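Title: Prediction job returns without error message
Component: structure pipeline
Severity: low
Priority: P3
Assignee: unassigned

Description:
Job completed but the reporter wants confirmation the result is attached to the right record. Sequence as submitted:
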Amino acid sequence: MLSVVIATANSERALVPTLAPLVSGAAAGIVRDVVVVDAGSQDRTADVADHAGCHLIVSEAGLAQRLRQGAAAARGLWLLFLRPGTVLEGGWIEDVVRFVERVERDGVERAAVFRPAAATGERPAWREALALLRLSLGGSAKAGQGLLLTRKTYDRLGGHRDGVADPERDLARRLGRRAVMLRSAAVVLD
């Protein structure tokens, strides 16, 4: 169903907790593959990716190009972009399945992000309200919220663009109101 793409750079410690919730997604048949595109890390990032069974690509290209390389290597029809240190909370599998089924049934072009959550696992109402307001007004989600979209939509938008300060936020901005927020949260570890 979906491929997870993670761009890393000396991300050994942040990558482990990001990969952990994906194991249940793979066991449920939701996660088809995980592509880690590493910028030539000097720590053990490559070992973590290898031990976890990820497809590892080493590239010293800029972030946008590495994310495009990961998307090109991914085998799923859906792409989930995560940053190292982003941890999906319980319920994410069911939320993703419901979202994908609805989009495929209705034939509408949509993308999704996870709700922001505090690193302690709490979800302050004001943080969620602000994130929802930002999305409803055509603003973009933060990269730590992850981004789920079809490969077709990704390709149509031109993927992650070079020459912008934050290629992840730029892509989310170009999605605009087509991006919705899932019920499950993503915690961004410091």
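Comment from assignee: result matches the submitted record. The CA atoms of residues 78 and 150 lie 4 Å apart.
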